[in-house]
Amino acid sequence: MTAQLVALGIFVAVFAIGAIRNVNIGIVMFPFAAAVGLSLADMALEDVIGGFPLSILVLLVGVTYFFGIAHSNGTIEWVVAATIAKVSGRDRLYPLVFFLLTAMISAMGAPLGGLVVAPVGMTVAARRGLDPMLMALAMGTGLSAGAFMPTSLFGIITWGTADAAGIELSPLLLAAVAIIANLILLAVAYLLFGRGTVAAGTAAETVVPAGAAAGGSPTGRPLSRYGQSSLVVPSDADTGADTEAPAPLTRVQLLTLVAIVLLVATVVVLSITGHEPDIGVLGFAFAALLAVVDPDAGKSATSRIDWGSVLLVGGIITYVGVLTEMGVLDMLGESAAAIGTPLLAAVLLCAVAGLVSAFASTTGMLAALVPLALPLIGDSSIPGWAMICAIGVCSSIVDVSPFSTVGATYVAAAEEADRPRMTKLLSVWGLSMVVIGPLVLTLTLIIPGMVLG
Prior knowledge:
Blueprint: H1 2-21, H2 25-39, H3 45-49, H4 54-72, H5 75-87, H6 94-106, H7 118-128, H8 132-147, H9 153-164, H10 171-193, E1 206-208, H11 210-213, E2 231-233, H12 251-272, H13 279-293, H14 295-301, H15 307-326, H16 328-338, H17 342-357, H18 362-372, H19 374-378, H20 384-396, H21 405-413, H22 419-452
Antiparallel strand pairs: 1-2
Helix pairs in contact: 1-2, 2-15, 4-9, 4-13, 4-14, 4-15, 5-6, 6-8, 7-8, 8-10, 9-18, 9-20, 10-20, 12-13, 13-14, 15-18, 17-18, 17-20, 17-22, 18-20, 20-22, 21-22
């Protein structure tokens, strides 16, 4: 028991130190996994290293490389510009459009890639007299919705970890839960902030500089590594001016769009027919095709592979493997059972996921808590799919907090006069999700799952 508590205490301490010092938690966690495994678990070093999740590595690298090519050859920027041009003049649709745009980009491997549209969205809000809070929440919920697609990081980690533990969880079901939850939050945002207006900007058509479209703010502060092209956004609401139409698609961009559609369609068809699609291998296959057609984009895309997330998830899951070998997860399961009320334990676990994610890495939180939730699932009547979905959504919907990367980006991209108000309101919204999320998901997902299961 003492060795187990020490190993668990080291895990929590390393996680906290990494989050406080803003370093990759997985890199710090990996050597501690080896040290604890050798000294406390009496494991061989090759057994410790064998816990590194190679399957998740293939998923993350394959998917982020494929969509990195789509960013490098300008396909993603073309889609964003074309969509904005189509909606010009219909102001009430802009938040929904930016929800969809952010969700689409977030679904392409790296959720934070969805921040590419943050400066554009906030500029649109200012020029069209929309409440910046509505636009920020629209993009934040879109990012959360897209992040749980089978092709994106949160979905890969959540579904992959559950699948490795033998929990039946369809990746499409996980995505559907995330989309529905975030659409409801978008509707709430419309009700709360849809009637608010801000001072209109200049009547002239405004062009977002290339740096801003790439994730930078109008002042040049970098917000995201994605995007290269300049995007033209609508001018003042009184002018009704249309946005400038994007240039025609090149052959490479058209091929990239076809590849994206085929990737998504293949995943959906295989999932519906009861197969388990290896999304990483599919990503590598389509990426290889595009790299042969456009070698320059293929070379450029290698820098977009999300190695940070690979190391983050790998280090945490390797340590969790050591904890499993030591029986720590079984001990936690017994402790959860001792609470006497599995539902209370589930709510507390979801609340912890949300609270930590509001200040630290959502990716790291998912990698750590999904495995730690397995004992609760195994020792109670709580359905595994519902518990895992609830943890995932609760970890993500708090990301609009200004203390996180996502929320801070939206505040920085807003007009200077709006930032104090947005900081306050995003703090209230994000922290309220720590309480509301677990309660609502327990009532609408976990309890019905227990009844029907």
